[in-house]
Amino acid sequence: MQPAGRAAQGHLAGVDHGHGRPGLQRQPGAPRPPGERRDLHVPADRLLPDRVRADPADARPGEAAEAGHRQGPAGRSGGAGGQARRDRRRGRGPHRDLRRGRRAHRRHRGGRRAHRGVRRRDGRGRCRVNWDWGAVRDFMPHFRDGLLVTLQALALGSVISFALGLVWALLMRAPTRWVRWPVGAVTEFVRNTPLLVQLFFLFYVLPEWGLTFSALTTGVFAIGLHYSTYTMQVYRAGIEAVPAGQWEAATALNLPRRRTWTAVILPQAIRRVVPALGNYVISMLKDTPMLMAITVLEMLGQARLYSQQHFRFTEPLTVIGVAFILVSYLASLLLRALERRLVR
Q1: Which pTM does this prediction carry?
Q2: Which domains does the chain have, with CATH numbers?
């Protein structure tokens, strides 16, 4: 059973017809029905007693009369400035809420500073590094195995790149173009393809053709082949830097062509290109982590394996990062010593 002044449940259209329901409206001056609550519609000035009254006409009639009684004749005629000064001294006036808000903001900001100071003294709110020396100690056997594999790949790859690069450079000086063109095409193709693609090709495609090698052997050959195309250009620059008088002197002495290359030209050319070859040694060292893609457990591969097993990533990665820096620095020192020895 619904009340007389309510719409039926589920009938939303009845909400729009409130004007036709006399129980919802009361005419001005009509008596209030018994039991009606009078605190449902509170005037705005009673809800916000501390609001700023910039206009005197905004005050209630009782407040305006009381203010006029306090001011007296002088205040009503021309003492508004004095009353404003008295209100400011007493903490009243049109801007008292702004001053209260400013003081509250200062107290809140001071509390936040104090809380931040306590949090910093407690160590909270800072970046913490959970370093575990026990994890470093446990990683050392894996690190030694990875370091040996890295040095082995670096040494063998450097030998292959230096030797094969010299072969490419000599073939590029062949008198017939049927030798120069194929060599140039192969070296350009190898130099312009990524090392990772070459690793995948040698490791996954060659076994389909019946050529199967171990992962480390494949990685060493790929690094040596890739960097031989760069050392070839270094050797070419060194050979062309040999003065033409050296060639003429060898011809005048009637030296065989092989003797001319091994005793006159190559020693002078290699002495000039040692710094450039040293740079490629450092580059090969930094590219050895790519061997991890073909399951070679060098330093990065060992660190990745240890991290996945023990869920510790900071310690092993930091250790191998420091190791790469130290090995690169020691290699540069050795190459510098070799350069000084060859210059003598």
Answers
A1: 0.62
A2: 142-343 (1.10.3720.10)
- pLDDT, tens digit (0-9, with 9 covering 90-100), for 143-187: 999 999 999 999 999 999 999 999 999 999 988 889 999 999 999
Query: How would you write the chain as a 3-class SS string?
Result: CCCCCCCCCCCHHHHHCCCCCHHHCCCCCCCCCCCCCCCCCCCHHHHCCCCCCCCHHHCCHHHHHHHHHHHHHHHHHCCHHHHHHHHHHCCCCCCHHHHHHHHHHHHHHHHHHHHHHHHHHHCCCCCCCCCCHHHHHHHHHHHHHHHHHHHHHHHHHHHHHHHHHHHHHHHCCCCCHHHHHHHHHHHHHHHCCCHHHHHHHHHHHHHHHCCCCCHHHHHHHHHHHHHHHHHHHHHHHHHHCCCHHHHHHHHHCCCCHHHHHHHHHHHHHHHHHHHHHHHHHHHHHHHHHHHHHHCCCCHHHHHHHHHHHHCCCHHHHHHHHHHHHHHHHHHHHHHHHHHHHHHC
Tokens of 54: 């910039």
For tokens 């092989």, the residue is: 258
The answer to whether 218 and 191 are in contact (CB under 8 A) is: no
